[in-house]
Amino acid sequence: MANTSKETTVDVTGMTCAACATRIEKGLNKLSGVEKATVNLALDRASIRYNPEELSPREIHQKIQDLGYDVKLDQTDYNITGMTCAACSARIEKVLNKQPGIEQATVNLALETATVHYHSGMISSRDIMKKVDDLGYKATEKNEELQRSNDHREEAIKKQQQKLFISLLLSLPLLWTMVGHFGFLSFLPLPEILINPWVQMALATPVQFYIGKQFYVGAYKALNNKSANMDVLVALGTSAAYFYSVYLAVESIGHEGHPMGLYFETSAILITLILLGKLFEARAKGRSSEAIKKLMGLQAKHATVERNGQEMILPIEEVLVGDILHVKPGERIPVDGEVTEGQSAMDESMITGESIPVDKHPGDNVIGSTINKNGFIKMKATKVGKDTALAQIIKVVEDAQGSKAPIQRMADTISGVFVPIVVGIAVITFLIWFLWIDPGNFASSLEKLIAVLVIACPCALGLATPTSIMAGSGRAAEYGILFKGGEHLENTHRVTTVVVDKTGTVTNGEPVLTDVKVAGDFTEATLLQLVGSVEKSSEHPLAKAMVQGVLDKEITIQENKEFESIPGFGVRAIVNGQQVAVGTVRFMEQLNVEISTILQEKEVLESEGKTVMIVAVDSVYAGLIAVADTMKSTSKDAILRLKEMGIEVIMITGDNQRTADSIAREAGIDVAIGDMLPEGKAAEVKKLQQQGKVVAMVGDGINDAPALAVADIGMAIGTGTDVAMEAADITLIRGELGSIADALWMSKKTITNIKQNLFWAFAYNTLGIPLAALGLLAPWVAGAAMAFSSVSVVLNSLRLQRVKL
């Protein structure tokens, strides 16, 4: 089943609190064919992994609708060219309507347009256009920029603002009647008309049933599905106040004077305050996904494409793999690709964090959305759309923000049973006041019931974790740390031991020329010229390092003759009539070269982790050449920082023990284990786990993948292989060890933030309910406290967006 499973994400509308999210999650997980479903209240999104052989996306959407919620559809309008008759439009319409993820497609032949309603988590606009292209027609997005800005959350906020304005307009006169009862505000004149119960009813009724309709609808859906949520509490509390006031108003007919103890202002002001809180909450939740918006803003919008010998500017969505693109100085690289012509320097700081531009020549890879600084280049597109590096980063961040941390399960469980308990407490409170504390005083007892119902809404509880996860993972992404899920963001702070691979992790991963020891009449330049001239014909990585070292010193390399490579020994060739040999001690012994006096010097260099080659010219010792994989400039400080955090650091490598010890000494690592095969690394990690340690493995190669998978937390260096990144839980894009400490620190900050949120969410309820039950909180004060509890939780989460690493 796992091999055939698919994943989809859908935007859900109509959720109001954690109980809604929990109900949808439970309902989806009960569906046959669903392997795992998680619902994120902060994102208004459901992520579902399912077996397509047992279940269709439409059935998933139907289930969500059956539960009383709705699935938000994206709508895109397209211009269609190439249609000639009604058969063409009918064919396009028929094929599109069969695509998974498309709910409805209509094609207009006369206008040459198509309107498609679809689920963006299942099918993209690019996929739709490609499907039309495959049918022999051409589809392009209509008003693309306008649609991009047409965000459903912004629309929802605008509607909330309009409702709040109307609600305020109607509630303020009622608020006047409330404050008029306070002795210290007696100087405020209270118009006679506002005391009239029918005027109060006229003002309160639109607020109760038009503005407050969303609470009744939500409560009905919840109760219809045999559960309860925030809407149930609000609907119960405000309805009790409103209908009791109506009863008193009707009772007063035929009596002189106005009835006392009306609660029209209570119900209206409660709804207004809750709307205000929801508006603040929606705005704050929108800010918590700023990281995604920033990343998306980095994407190029258009590309200059060379097709059929002509240059044309196309939307980025229309670039295909294999296209030749022209990129001018100052422009963004449109997609991932390879330079085919020209040279320039690229600002890759958005990916690597390095501010120094990287030189690019034909054959070099370039990353989409990085900036071409100073030269014109042509490039071939190798990855487009969702396959580009930036799109993958955005996907990882979105997945992390949409996932659940283990700590959230506790909050979900509590919020799921919270509402029925609160209703029970409210009823008991009413009975105690009505029967014992203030016998027969229905109005006073009702007031306490309303206050308990309203103060107890579990919104803050449901938002406590997801908003922190969103803000924390988004901020981490800005620093080049990609958490694959909320559980990894939570668990990382528990790490006690960090195991690092050597090559490409602690070190640069590429050998460089480090030492040249010259003998006899040779100078360094002449010796290096001979070595470079011989080694240029070798394919060995060490040979390439030596040749590069010679070229870096601006020494000319000459032609050689009769080149010969002896595997495991070395190479030899004739350069300028001289027989030059470069190789091991055994090779020199074969050639009868006297080297006994330099063996100690060679061992000293090897004890420093260097690979040493002996050079002989015409069978006479001429010097030593040392090559080594150099340590990254940031590694030593990064290791020191981890130690200061109390983290044990261990290095594991496939290199020999002597090289491992040398690099470990230089980096400040106390324990180094050499001569390790990939499975050996994984076994070593398991051994540490058996000792009760929480282990993070950091690596960059295919050989690190087993250990990355076994570790409690796997961290892949972003400059490494795709296999390593696939096996890891966290990707460190910048490729330096300093990001390990940053990841641990970000995890600790996020967990602290979540705990603060949960504390305040529980505090509001545990303190608020007894105060309300004791009659110390007026219903409107309870409403204000409840509304702003959610806002305070979200605002606290947003502090993570200002964390400095």
From TrEMBL:
Which terms under GO biological process does the entry name?
copper ion homeostasis
Please classify the protein's predominant subcellular localization into one broad category. Answer: membrane
What chemistry does it catalyse, as a reaction equation?
Cu(+)(in) + ATP + H2O = Cu(+)(out) + ADP + phosphate + H(+)
Arranged from A to Z, the UniProt key words for this protein are: ATP-binding, Cell membrane, Copper, Copper transport, Ion transport, Magnesium, Membrane, Metal-binding, Nucleotide-binding, Phosphoprotein, Repeat, Translocase, Transmembrane, Transmembrane helix, Transport
* GO MF, one annotated term: ATP hydrolysis activity
**What membrane topology does the annotation report for this chain?**
Multi-pass membrane protein
Transmembrane parts of this sequence: 164-187, 193-211, 232-250, 262-280, 417-437, 449-471, 757-774
Q: Where in the cell is it found?
A: Cell membrane
Q: What is its EC number?
A: 7.2.2.8
Which EC main class describes this enzyme? translocase
Record keywords: ATP-binding included? yes
Taxonomy, superkingdom:
Bacteria
Q: Which residues form the HMA domain?
A: 6-72, 74-140
The cellular component terms of Gene Ontology attached to this UniProt record, alphabetical and capped at eight, are: plasma membrane
Give a short account of what the protein does. Involved in copper export.
Q: Which family does it belong to?
A: Belongs to the cation transport ATPase (P-type) (TC 3.A.3) family. Type IB subfamily.
In terms of PANTHER family, this protein maps to: ATP7, ISOFORM B, P-TYPE CU(+) TRANSPORTER
Q: What is this protein called?
A: Copper-exporting P-type ATPase
Q: Which organism is it from?
A: Bacillus coahuilensis p1.1.43
Query: What does UniProt list as this organism's lineage?
Result: Bacteria, Bacillati, Bacillota, Bacilli, Bacillales
